[in-house]
Amino acid sequence: MPQPPTTLRPVPLAPEISLHLADHATGLFDASGGEFRSDDPPPFWAFVWAGGQSLARFLLDRPELVAGHRVLDLATGSGIAAIAAARAGAAEVVATDLDPAAVAAARRNAAANQVTLLEELSARPDVLLAGDVFYSPSAAAAMTAQLRAARREGTEVLVGDPGRGYFPDRLFKRVAEYAVPVPVALEETELLTTGIWRMR
């Protein structure tokens, strides 16, 4: 899939962080001529989603949650939550994604913010982050299983979610909420109320 042109600019809810992002008027499938092919994922990494923005704001305001800890950011996209964790003093941060282009984008964005994302953690994560990961039934099922497994091992699990249809809220307690500025071309609204949720 062709990659959209990006510009380095501050994130609306966390302006301490700048990311290489697609234009505000660009939609997710614009670079592909409006087509989606499952073997060629859309460039989720070229946008800063509400869940990731909220996680970033939450961690920057509460650095004690990750300072000195090992942090894993699942389905990292642009890498914003991972970058915020690193900025907040995490000892080790790894960003993973099914799309190799997203991992590359997260590392590029980390470099732009003078932080480093590692290839792997030295031991299991103390904190697991996931922003905007419950966007389809299959993604939600896979992510729920992974998050529950991590929680059973004692990992703190924090999720940023703006009320996507497949979010299993019964498994979580909301600990914060933000009105997040988002591109209309992406979300069909200018503000998206987004919760930070801690897995029970």
Write the layout of secondary structure elements.
Blueprint: E1 6-10, E2 18-22, H1 50-61, E3 70-74, H2 80-87, E4 92-95, H3 100-112, E5 127-131, H4 137-152, E6 156-161, E7 172-181, H5 184-187, E8 191-199
Parallel strand pairs: 3-4, 3-5, 5-6
Antiparallel strand pairs: 1-2, 6-8, 7-8
Helix pairs in contact: 1-2
What is the CATH C-level name? Alpha Beta
Please state the CA-atom Rg, rounded to the nearest Å.
15 Å
CATH superfamily: Vaccinia Virus protein VP39
How do the SSEs run, as a string of H and E? EEHEHEHEHEEHE
Quickly give the CATH architecture: 3-Layer(aba) Sandwich
Describe the strand arrangement of the main beta sheet, using strand numbers: 4-3-5-6-8-7
Sheet-strand content, in percent, reads: 15-25%
Instruction: Give the tally of structural domains.
Output: 1
Q: Assign a percent range to the helix content.
A: 25-40%
Low-confidence stretches: none
Total beta-strand segments: 8
Mean pLDDT score: 92
- Global structural class: alpha/beta
- The CATH topology corresponds to Rossmann fold
Task: Explain what this protein looks like in three dimensions.
By secondary structure, the chain is an alpha/beta fold. The protein has a single domain (48-199), classed as Vaccinia Virus protein VP39 (Rossmann fold), CATH 3.40.50.150. Helices cover 26% and strands 24% of the residues. It has helices at 50-61, 80-87, 100-112, 137-152, 184-187; strands at residues 6-10, 18-22, 70-74, 92-95, 127-131, 156-161, 172-181, 191-199. The strands form 2 sheets. A 6-stranded mixed beta sheet has the order 4-3-5-6-8-7, with helices on both faces. The protein has a two-stranded antiparallel ribbon with strand order 1-2. Strand 5, helix 4 and strand 6 form a beta-alpha-beta unit. The termini are far apart.
